[in-house]
Amino acid sequence: MSELAIDLARIQFAFTVSFHIIFPAFSIGLASYITVLEALHLKTRDHQYLELSKYWTKIFAVTFGMGVVSGIVMSYQFGTNWGVFSDKTGPVLGPLMGYEVLTAFFLEAGFLGIMLFGRGRVGEKLHFLATATVAFGTLLSATWILAVNSWMQTPAGFAYNDLGQFIVTSWWDVIFNPSFPYRLVHMVIAAYLTTAFVVAGVGAWHLLKAPHNELARISFSMGMWMAVLVTPIQIVAGDLHGLNTLEHQPMKVAAMEGHFETQKGAPLILFGLPNEDTETIDYKVAIPYLGSIILTHKVDGEIKGLKSVPKEERPPVAIVFWSFRIMVAIGFLMLAIGLISVWLRRKKALYETPWFLKLCVWSAPCGFVAILSGWITTEVGRQPYTVYGLLTTAESVSPIDASAVGASLAVFVVVYFAIFGAGIYYLLKLMRKSPSKYEQDMDVRVVTRLSHGQLGKDKDGNPIAAPLGPEDPQAGEER
């Protein structure tokens, strides 16, 4: 197979998975957020949490649908473009993908209908249970997918059969391979932070237009609490993940850090231009010894350089170098925004500071950029292998012409931008609608009942709305 065909197959998979990954990541975080909102409503009986749950459930439904569609399309490429990979890894990865369907998909399919359409038709507790089950299903789906990807990064628990296929010797070792726990924690937290910044960004957008919008305030406040509490955990998880990667994939770390030479007391290179021809980092800005301190927790810790392996066994340095820095920069931006929110909250100015609200609106998509950057770091850093150290990308492709791959790639680009572009536009349209519709409706109903003498008084003499009866024209809507 020609180099062009291999590159086109890689580009096609990268393009489709880049579209796919953002939707499940958002679904994971949003399902859990909706579950928290419904739990708060059941505990406090505050209708604002219920209305926020309704608001975000509509957005979740669209996001979940686009995630399913994009995932189905992506899976076909294993048979069309990556047939050799599918054949050799099928005995290991096939069952793991099947387990995802039998567990996560069955849970989601079984309870999604109740979550989306059961409100008012089943009891509140049953609806909460359905929502929590869907949220658990999204986490379970991520668990199986991360087990698959982690095995490709750090393969374990396998042997070879007479056909040269990978076969399982220990399912425990396959699933709980050396990098699996770190990848799972890092990815799930990333999904939660991504959702938190979208929720906060939407809240900030509506607060800029209506500073006293209570539902927008709740959304914004919850998103900021998640940012300040969870971002430090993500930074620690990322550090632990980096140490694990250094142990099992040292060349990936060398590309991330920009180290061509093996050295003790390695500096931390903040910026620079990787030059793979001269095997140097040009115009670099570095802090002495800090690279070894971060990666080995020792001042004189040794970091293997890219020159320790032949050029054909190295990942593309520039892509990995910059994607890693984008991910890290966004992580510290999230931390800074969270800390600023604490300062403004203490000054009682969290909801009335326009420049900060605008910053949060513009930062709403930063989680998606961080996830894509992290995925690029992970997958490009694994090159030139599909199964690290054992099966190369060149050995994994199907015997297919470059023209065929190029034609299908062109179709994917056109169709994806048309369909998912429309889907994203609709999501943004939903988010532009104010979540305070319930409050507006309640004001109208109270005024209507007041004019008809339908307000009673509580024990303190405050006016309250009388319960709706069957003859009330608003009864059907409120029920």
UniProtKB/TrEMBL annotation:
Top-level lineage group: Bacteria
Subcellular localization: Cell inner membrane; Cell membrane
Transmembrane segments: 12-34, 55-76, 96-116, 128-147, 184-208, 215-237, 319-344, 356-376, 405-428
Protein's UniProt name: Cytochrome d ubiquinol oxidase subunit I
Molecular function in Gene Ontology: electron transfer activity; heme binding; metal ion binding; oxidoreductase activity, acting on diphenols and related substances as donors, oxygen as acceptor
Similarity comment: family membership: Belongs to the cytochrome ubiquinol oxidase subunit 1 family.
Native organism taxonomy: Bacteria, Pseudomonadati, Pseudomonadota, Gammaproteobacteria, Vibrionales
Chief location category: membrane
The entry's keywords: Cell membrane, Electron transport, Heme, Iron, Membrane, Metal-binding, Transmembrane, Transmembrane helix, Transport
